[in-house]
């Protein structure tokens, strides 16, 4: 077992860091303050991602055919670590890179691939993910948005909620029902300017315009918008989520925020206290545990193994690390978390509040760990 990075990995990380140093503007922290789903950061991504693509750093792990360079899985994670630690200048485009693109490569028609993959690989595509509904979040299979077949079209009616990026997205990766049960779910790739779609921002403490309600009223799309077959939707999202469970390496961001908190405490000559030091150590351990559990998932993926329970464990650990770090900061540097305090700590704190619910609640991951890892009966 070798935990060290190779010289090639180190060189790749340096290349990514150099790129960030040269391309992030002086006022980047004030842009990043609003979170990856904000209008500010989404707009920024539309100039940043094309440059990243030109440097060969947007989709290096994608096949050459689709603008990538067939680079190893580990490089994709190194890239993600540096991007998230910098505040995620790719905005919502990280989703394209991590899972929407790979899902289209696997399930898309030639026409869908030719239409959607090149703009993603060149850093010019904003998508949103239309999964959750009122009454269908953790229990996603309860979704009620319906797509009724009408000749060569589908007519979609229903409502989505908590949809990140919807305010600026061109396309929605939408789940809708064509029949009953899990087998009755299909995926549609819906242009957001289709008549009948209404987007309303939900005011929230995170970001500027980060989350939305999206209403579909008699939205007519051709059958060519369906991804895969009717009834294949559940398999498609299972594949998508297996890609995304550890897609946001927040342990790296948490770990660097913790370093910054410790540096601030030292500057204030407040790091000598034994309680402060032991709490910092606990937070550091949580970050490193999360990192190791995520690396296990990356290792499985790099070896081509199917996703197992490691991803569920890793996701819970990442959430815990987030919470430990922000709790540490709130306890010992409270002034940084109010008013004009410390923008990066505040941004981290706001995301830490929702990290255990966005992208699937941590409790649901614990249920899965209990069933799949500990072999406990369902509902025990
Ligand atoms: C910032 C943010 C961004 C988001 N972006 C998107 C997006 O872009 N697209 C999208 O489709 N969705 C998005 N979501 C929605 C997210 O996926 C859901 O919030 C999540 O799946 C939980 O669903 P829910 O909100 O309906 O909560 P519920 O499912 O009602 O859960 C409420 C609470 O009950 C707990 N709970 C529920 N069932 C169980 C159970 N069986 N056992 C134990 N505990 C349980 C949950 O853990 C949670 O704590 C986003 C959410 C947030 C906060």
From TrEMBL:
Source species: Maritimibacter harenae
Assigned keywords, A-Z: FAD, Flavoprotein, Oxidoreductase
Listed InterPro entries: Acyl-CoA_Oxase/DH_mid-dom (IPR006091), Acyl-CoA_Oxase/DH_mid-dom_sf (IPR046373), AcylCo_DH-like_C (IPR036250), AcylCo_DH/oxidase_C (IPR009075), AcylCoA_DH/ox_N (IPR013786), AcylCoA_DH/ox_N_sf (IPR037069), AcylCoA_DH/oxidase_NM_dom_sf (IPR009100), Mycobact_Acyl-CoA_DH (IPR052161)
GO CC terms in record: plasma membrane
PANTHER family the record matches: ACYL-COA DEHYDROGENASE, ACYL-COA DEHYDROGENASE FADE29
Record Gene3D superfamilies: Acyl-CoA dehydrogenase/oxidase, N-terminal domain, Butyryl-CoA Dehydrogenase, subunit A, domain 2, Butyryl-CoA Dehydrogenase, subunit A, domain 3
One annotated GO molecular function: oxidoreductase activity, acting on the CH-CH group of donors
Keyword tRNA-binding assigned: no
Domain Acyl-CoA dehydrogenase/oxidase N-terminal: start-end pairs: 7-123
Name assigned to this protein: Acyl-CoA dehydrogenase
Domain Acyl-CoA dehydrogenase/oxidase C-terminal: 231-372
Acyl-CoA oxidase/dehydrogenase middle domain boundaries: 128-219
Keyword hit for Cell membrane: no
Family the entry assigns: Belongs to the acyl-CoA dehydrogenase family.
Required co-factors: FAD
Pfam families listed in its UniProt record: Acyl-CoA_dh_1 (PF00441), Acyl-CoA_dh_M (PF02770), Acyl-CoA_dh_N (PF02771)
């Amino acid at each position: 077992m070798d935990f060290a990075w190779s010289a090639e990995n180190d060189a790749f990380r340096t290349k990514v860091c150099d790129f960030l140093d040269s391309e992030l503007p002086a006022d980047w922290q004030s842009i990043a303050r609003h979170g990856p789903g904000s209008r500010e950061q989404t707009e920024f991504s539309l100039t940043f991602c094309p440059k990243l693509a030109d440097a060969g750093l947007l989709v290096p792990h994608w096949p050459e055919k689709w603008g990538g360079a067939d680079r190893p899985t580990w490089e994709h994670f190194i890239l993600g670590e540096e991007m998230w630690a910098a505040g995620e200048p790719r905005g919502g485009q990280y989703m394209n890179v991590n899972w929407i693109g790979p899902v289209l490569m696997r399930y898309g028609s030639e026409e869908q691939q030719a239409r959607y993959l090149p703009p993603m690989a060149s850093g010019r595509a904003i998508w949103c993910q239309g999964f959750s509904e009122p009454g269908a979040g953790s229990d996603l299979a309860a979704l009620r948005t319906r797509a009724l077949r009408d000749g060569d079209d589908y007519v979609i009616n229903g409502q989505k909620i908590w949809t990140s990026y919807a305010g600026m997205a061109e396309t929605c990766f939408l789940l809708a029902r064509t029949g009953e049960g899990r087998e009755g779910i299909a995926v549609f790739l819906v242009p957001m300017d289709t008549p009948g779609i209404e987007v309303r921002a939900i005011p929230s403490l995170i970001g500027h315009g980060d989350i939305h309600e999206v209403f579909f009223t008699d939205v007519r799309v051709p059958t060519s918008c369906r991804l895969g077959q009717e009834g294949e939707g559940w398999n498609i999202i299972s594949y998508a989520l297996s890609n995304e469970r550890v897609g946001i390496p927040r342990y790296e961001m948490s770990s660097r925020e913790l370093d910054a908190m410790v540096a601030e405490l030292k500057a204030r000559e407040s790091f000598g206290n034994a309680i402060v030091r032991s709490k910092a150590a606990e937070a550091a351990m949580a970050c490193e545990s999360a990192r190791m559990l995520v690396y296990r998932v990356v290792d499985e993926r790099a070896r081509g193994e199917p996703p197992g329970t490691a991803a569920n464990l890793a996701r819970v650990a990442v959430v815990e690390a987030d919470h430990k770090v922000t709790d540490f900061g709130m306890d010992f540097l409270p002034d940084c978390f109010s008013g004009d305090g410390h923008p990066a700590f505040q941004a981290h704190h706001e995301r830490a509040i929702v990290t255990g619910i966005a992208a699937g609640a941590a409790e649901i991951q614990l249920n899965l760990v209990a069933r799949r890892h500990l072999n406990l009966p369902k509902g025990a």
